[in-house]
Amino acid sequence: MSKVLIIGAGGVGGVVTHKCAQLPEVFSEIVLASRTEEKCKAIAAQLDRPIKTAKVDADNVAELTALLEQEKPDLVINVALPYQDLTIMDACLAAGVDYLDTANYEPLDTAKFEYKWQWAYQDKFKEAGLTALLGSGFDPGATNVFTAYIAKHYFDEIHELDIIDVNGGDHGYPFATNFNPEINIREVTAECRHWENGEFVETPAMSKKATFTCPEEVGTYNIYRMYHEELESLTKNFPTLKRAQFWMSFGESYLKHLEVLGNVGMTGIEPIDYNGQKIVPIQFLKALLPDPSTLGPRTKGKTCIGCVVKGIKDGKEKIVYLYNIKDHQDCYKEVQSQAISYTTGVPAMIGAKMMLEGKWKQPGVWNIEQFDPDPFMEDMNKYGLPWNVIELDNFNLDN
Ligand code: NDP
């Protein structure tokens, strides 16, 4: 019996709240707080059981601390934006509450995708006896746990990791992003980095392309190598990795729009002067694009996200692929959301459940692959993200 406070009432916040509400034996009390309380109320109205809602500015530590002291939750699930990670962690320390998020802290003015700011909280959380779980979404999140599970059960030593994120869904818009447009576009336009022989190697954004055929007839897609934040923690926590890469599928229309928007400066994160006012181009673009939380009813098709790992077992090389396939419309029927928010929100709920049940509770700041993957993997099967694992005879994306 635990009380959880969820911060952020966007696409992911909606799914986490639905999933926590489905498990009253774990999440006996739920508070959903966000900048715009009407959005919290709209999510609350979709549920079968009552929850509390609140308005909070998550950039403001004092306001957050006051809310935490008033509500006294056992855990905060942060599904606001990466810009708020540190203020929410500060408030958790001030009020003595455990913390979980799904994306690393990002400064507003530079796209970094680094854990250094949050890892710097290690001693503070340890001394306070509090647990902070970082990156409990799908990628980062489930993909880190998949890697840990494969390393634990299938190999003596892992050498190569390819995380492949395919979204075979179609929302019918010429251009829309499946999660927060600002974060999505920052991620996709950032310089690519992958791990090669003990260091990160930089290449231009989207400069390496491959084709990948998903299992179970999901289809064949163009995938592009890009940097993704879990590469930083996974290469640190699995030092035997010689190569680690992240790939994501993109459609032609998405890429064409992104190129044009980039060329005209609409994806910029530096403020510009417009009629005496400061405007950040990417924030203005966000205001024009469809809200990701409204894509649910119109998105059809499936996601297929997983990890291919090469390594050694009993002196022999082998290749293992562990993946989840999720149907957008099935997600919509269950929680009124498309699969991108669903595949993020369910691992956030499961990570929270792990902490509240005491299975993943250890003072300090941890990336998700640092805990035992087994109970999380069991719950993925139970709560809507069943996975499959197969051995491959060969695997090569250097085409
Ligand atoms: P949305 O933009 O849909 O939702 C963000 C929510 O946070 C909105 O409700 C917004 O409020 C609220 N918010 C923003 N700023 C503040 C603030 N200062 N105070 C209080 N509330 C605030 O984003 P998503 O739901 O798509 O994504 C949520 C998080 O999940 C992001 O951090 C994203 O990076 C992460 N993510 C992680 C993935 C993974 O697999 N690990 C995949 C997808 C997303 P308002 O409605 O007023 O704007």
From TrEMBL:
<protein>
    <submittedName>
        <fullName>Saccharopine dehydrogenase</fullName>
    </submittedName>
</protein>
<dbReference type="InterPro" id="IPR032095">
    <property type="entry name" value="Sacchrp_dh-like_C"/>
</dbReference>
<dbReference type="InterPro" id="IPR005097">
    <property type="entry name" value="Sacchrp_dh_NADP-bd"/>
</dbReference>
<feature type="domain" description="Saccharopine dehydrogenase NADP binding">
    <location>
        <begin position="4"/>
        <end position="133"/>
    </location>
</feature>
<dbReference type="Pfam" id="PF03435">
    <property type="entry name" value="Sacchrp_dh_NADP"/>
</dbReference>
<dbReference type="InterPro" id="IPR036291">
    <property type="entry name" value="NAD(P)-bd_dom_sf"/>
</dbReference>
<dbReference type="Pfam" id="PF16653">
    <property type="entry name" value="Sacchrp_dh_C"/>
</dbReference>
<feature type="domain" description="Saccharopine dehydrogenase-like C-terminal">
    <location>
        <begin position="137"/>
        <end position="385"/>
    </location>
</feature>
